[in-house]
Amino acid sequence: MKITELWFDKDYIYDKDEEGRTYKQSLLWYPKLRDASDEERSSYRIGFDGIHWRNLDVDISFESFTYDDAELTPLQRFFLNHKEININEFAKQIGIKATSLHNYINGFEKPSKEREQQILHHVHTIGKEYAVTTF
Fold first, then answer.
1. Quick one: how far is CA 17 from the chain centroid?
2. Residues contacting 25, CB < 8 A, separation 6+
3. How are beta strands 45-46 and 22-26 bridged, if at all?
4. Which tens digits make up the pLDDT trace of 32-47?
5. Rounded distance, CA 106 to CA 103, Å?
6. Comparing C-alpha atoms, which of 62, 81, 92, 78 is closest to residue 120?
7. Is the pTM of this model over 0.70?
8. Rounded to 5 degrees, what angle do the CA atoms 5, 8, 14 make?
9. DSSP state of 47
């Protein structure tokens, strides 16, 4: 893939290849890049297999732009937006392996519909607990 254009909006990084195809990825995968200034974002180098921001220590492979499931699932979006949640403890509370939950969040595995419902049910339970907490 040869990149001819690279740009950002508040949620995504986009690139356009030499054939005019446009690809995007969520910046939730790259928090340093998401939080970077325009100047920091513009200081990148295109290498053999990807894009590198040396000052941010961020690398994005060309291949990752072509993944079929580049758009985050609601489950991924929730956990990537809420880094304050301890994934290991969350998994323990619902009786699943922490590695499985990490894999669901990182897109290495897809949960079954039942497992996804189990996780989302616990997210809603925690949300209700927070909602009724008074100080």
1. 22
2. 12, 13, 60, 64, 65, 70
3. unpaired
4. 999 999 999 999 999 9
5. 5
6. 78
7. yes
8. 50
9. -
